Each structure stands twice: as C-alpha cells, then as structure tokens.
UniProtKB/TrEMBL annotation:
Record keywords: Lyase, Metal-binding
Protein's organism: Alteromonas arenosi
Metal-binding as UniProt keyword: yes
UniProt cross-references to Gene3D superfamilies, sorted A to Z: Phosphoenolpyruvate-binding domains (3.20.20.60)
Family matches, as Pfam families: ICL
Keyword Nuclease listed: no
Protein name per UniProt: Isocitrate lyase
Length: 531
C-alpha cells in the first residue's frame, strides 16, 4: 500500500472518530496536502538528504563515473528553476545537488548591500537562504503533485483507467536534494561555528563546507592575502560542526574540509608544539625563518623559536602575520587534507588557481597514499578564465608533443581570431570532458560552480536591456524571453501558477467548496498560454 493510501485511510478513520464534527473535511484532500508537504521540518530534509549524499559517496567509490554536480544559487526561485530544469531535461534529480555560496550571500543577500567575500555579511543570512531554497523546492513538489491530482480527478470523471497517474503520484521524485552549504571560516571561534552550524542544519543543510582561513581575516579563495590557521584550530571547528550534527540527530551529516593553503602564504599565529613531529611542529616547519646565532641577531620585540636543535626567528610582516616558506603550498595542502580526514572530515576541497586535472591529481594522489578513499568537492570556478586556461594547456601539450604551434600566440589565445581554430576546438573538448576526466583521474566526487547564476542573471539582463531600451523595444522581451519560454516548454511562462496561484485555488476549493473565489477562471490571462 502506498504512503498516500495509508494517509487517506488513517485520516478517514480519524474523521469518523470525530462523530460528525469534521464533516467539512475530505480525507482525500487532507491526504493530498500531506503528500504535497512531505518534509515537515528542515531536520527532516537534512536527514533525508544526508542519506542521499552517503549513498552517492559510496557509488562514487565503486565507480568514479558516478560523480555528482551542483550549481550555486542565491535565491530560492533560482534553485527551484534549476531543479525543475534538471527534472525536465535529465528526467531525474539523481546525483544533482544545490550549492550555497558564501560569495553570493555576501554579494547579493546582505543588508549592507554588495560585499566582498570576506565574511562581513550577516551570518544569519546563510541559514535563511537554506530555508528559502527548500521552501521553493517544496513548493515545486506541491505544484507538480497538484497537477497530477487534477489529472487523476479528470480521468476518474471520464471513467478512464487511473493506474498510470496513480503510479506517478506514488513514485513521485521530489525536487528536494542535498545542499552543500558554505559556512566560510566559521564566523568566529569554535562556539560561534557550532551555533551557526546548528542553524544551518535546522534549516535543512546535510553538508557543511568549512575552510582553514582565519575567520576575521577571511578572503575569497581566488584573491590574495589569505591567512591560514594551525591545524588544531581548524580541527576544533570540524569537531564543532560534527557535534552540531550529532546533537540534532543527523548522524550521517557530511563535513567538507576546505584548504586554501595552495594560495595562502601567511599564518596568524605559531601553534605550541608539545612533542617532536606533532601537528604543531609539522605546521611550524613550513615557516620562513632565519638563523639566530646570538642576541645581536635580534631586534626588540622579535620572536625566536627552537627548530631541530637550533634557534630561528620566523619572518614576521609589519602587520604581525608570519610568512611561510616559498613553494610549500603543495605540501601544506597534503598535510591539511590528510589531517582533516583523519580527524572527522568526510570530503575535501582544495582551492586551486587554475582548472588543471594533472595539478589536482598530483595532490590527491599524495593524499591517497595515506587515506586511500580521499575524494574532493571541486570548485569549477568562474574566477578561472576557462577559455584561456585550456587553450594554453592544449598549446603546451602540442608543443611538448612536437606539433607545429607557430600559427598561435600563446599569450593572445583568448583572441576571437582563434575561436574557430583547431586548437580552440580541442580546448573546448577538454573543457567539456573536464568533470568526467577529473572525477576519474583526480578523485573529484562533486563538481560545482560557485556563482554561475550571478553571471547568468547579469548576462540575461544585459541582453534584454540592450534590446528593450534600444530599437527592438517590446520585441526584445517577446522574442528573447517569452517566445523562448513557450518554445522550450518552461513552466515559468505561467508565472501566476509558478507563484502558487493554482495551488491557492485548489486549497480554497478544499476549504470553501463551491463558495471558493478562484483566480484561475476564464478571465485569467494565463489562459493565453494554453496553446
């Protein structure tokens, strides 16, 4: 028996027990409303989606072609439309997630207005966006199920077989999918991280991504000036997130440990080492230092540490930060990742300066020497110039193979004059296969783009404004937007229904019967799209 039928029967039994006082209640309508609101709380969502992620991780371990993907969404409507599109074009939401980008929260959701990605936005805006995203996804479920119920009623009225429609209802695939949610560097100390993580999980987050930068000096991973924290500080925050998951009963919640060490050359403090080769000693070994032979080698206020039986002074900048040795980023990344996985993290995130499968694979292979099932969440970042990067990769590969590249200027490969060239075609083919290649060769379980919908909103608005305020006038909207919505079958062309008008009409009918004042009558201009 389906859940829908079980609910219908139990509500009918409950109604009968009320001795006639519930005669205005239709058990079938109540069962429908219950099915349309499958997830009652954010914690229901977090538990459901955590199980999905764990299964997907196991699937990937068995077969690297089973990687997962997401796009960053800065509004509930954007996330809803993304999942509607996935179901329409791919037929299933399987292996597709949402990504919540701290960059986009800062740039688009702060009451201060647009902000850089430096953890200056209100931290409460992060769980608020998670809740908003899931509100829109649940509404997408309710709308689609409502349409199926209408089809069911119409088939019943005509005396037609309803088995196929009922099967669609009983086996309905929800739009609710996992969110990988960015908590930045934790927005404060480990207690602050715990408190925010709880709010995020209560809103529905099954997966929290945290980075090893200093919280009050946090920078975007693709900008300069990044400062990392000692491992002990970072592990305390990983523990804080795990405690939040366990307290709320999301025992299989997922933690993504992000390292920015590849591009970070500074640390805020020198941790205390209690024994040779402990984590603090390993961290301190990367410090840039100079030997101290006598007190004369020191200026007032300078700091001295003992390393390998010798006294050295770490290089300290005027702002008090300490410098790492040059060319240690790779080794620091590997140590960061191994340490995080050995202390409670489930997945890794390595922020790189370019999308290069070989570079990522080299680091992952070093990590897997210690943790064989290590796998990544990877940022297919809009901060990369993908066209130039891959054209240069092809140029270099061809040069190394002895192929003639004299017709190309490596420094100018972004030029439009190369767009139709053989090199450009090869570069585009590598971009197209990048995710599959990196999943297979570089341990990437989840591919995401942090802020794609920021750029798509800007591009589509620019195109519309260019024509509408120019010679095309209204044709710019009709030809470029509305006609395309109709031709491509976007449900959003009926924006009243998408916003919940039809759902509201159905509920009014449930509540008021024939007295219901409904919006979807013959004078509703949305009917013009029933063609």
């Amino acid at each position: 028996m389906s859940q829908y039928q079980q609910d219908l029967d139990s509500i009918a039994e409950l109604k009968n027990a009320q001795k006639g006082t519930w005669n205005g209640i239709n058990p079938e309508y109540a069962a429908r409303m219950k099915l349309q609101n499958r997830f009652k709380t954010g914690l229901d969502i977090a538990k459901y989606t955590a199980a999905i992620m764990r299964k997907d991780m196991a699937d990937y371990d068995a077969d690297s072609s089973q990687y997962t993907q997401s796009l960053g969404c800065w509004h509930g409507f954007i996330g809803q439309q993304k999942m509607l599109a996935i179901k329409k074009h791919q037929g299933t939401t399987n292996k597709r997630y949402l990504y919540l980008s701290g960059w986009m929260v800062a740039a688009l959701r702060s009451e201060f207005g647009p902000l850089p990605d430096q953890s200056m936005h209100e931290k409460t805006s992060v769980p608020a966006l998670i809740e908003e995203l899931y509100t829109f996804l649940r509404q997408a479920d309710a709308r689609e199920l409502g349409d199926l119920f209408k089809q069911l009623d119409a088939a019943k009225a005509k005396g037609e077989d309803t088995a196929a429609i009922q099967a669609q209802i009983d086996n309905y695939e929800t739009h609710v999918v996992p969110i990988v949610a960015d908590i930045d560097a934790g927005f404060g100390n480990e207690e602050a991280t715990y408190l925010l993580a709880k709010k995020m999980i209560e809103a529905g987050a099954c997966c929290i991504q945290i980075e090893n930068q200093v919280s009050d000096a946090k920078q975007c991973g693709h900008q300069d000036g990044k400062v990392t924290v000692p491992h002990e500080d970072f592990l305390a925050k990983i523990n804080a997130v795990r405690y939040a998951f366990l307290e709320l009963g999301v025992d299989d919640g997922v933690i993504v440990a992000r390292t920015d060490s590849l591009g970070a050359g500074l640390t805020q403090k020198i941790p205390v080492s209690n024994s040779p080769d402990d984590l603090a000693a390993q961290y301190n070994a990367f410090l840039d230092t100079t030997p101290v032979n006598s007190v004369a080698d020191l200026n007032d206020g300078e700091l001295v540490i003992k390393q390998n039986g010798e006294l050295v002074k770490p290089t300290r900048l005027p702002n008090g930060l300490f410098k790492f040795k040059d060319n240690t980023g790779f080794d620091r990344v590997v140590l960061d990742c191994v340490t995080s996985l050995q202390h409670g993290a489930d997945l890794l995130w390595i922020e790189t300066e370019k999308p290069h499968v070989g570079q990522i694979a080299e680091m992952v292979n070093a990590i897997r020497e210690v943790v064989p099932n290590a796998k990544l969440v990877y940022n297919n970042s809009p901060s990369f110039n993908w066209t130039l990067n891959f054209r240069q990769q092809v140029f270099d590969a061809w040069s190394e193979a002895g192929k003639d590249v004299s017709g190309y200027d490596r420094a100018a490969l972004m030029s439009v004059e190369y767009d139709d060239s053989e090199l450009a075609a090869e570069a585009d083919a590598r971009i197209q296969s990048f995710q599959a290649d990196a999943a297979r060769e570089a341990g990437i379980f989840h591919h995401l783009i942090t802020l794609p919908t920021y750029h798509t909103a800007a591009l589509s608005t620019d195109n519309l404004a260019k024509g509408y305020f120019g010679e095309q006038g209204m044709l710019a909207y009709v030809k470029g937007v509305q006609r395309q919505e109709l031709r491509q079958g976007l449900a959003c062309v009926k924006h009243q229904a998408m916003a919940g008008s039809d759902l509201g009409d159905t509920h009014k009918e449930y509540f008021s019967g024939d007295q219901a004042l409904k919006a979807a009558g013959e004078d509703n201009t949305m009917n013009q799209f029933d063609v």
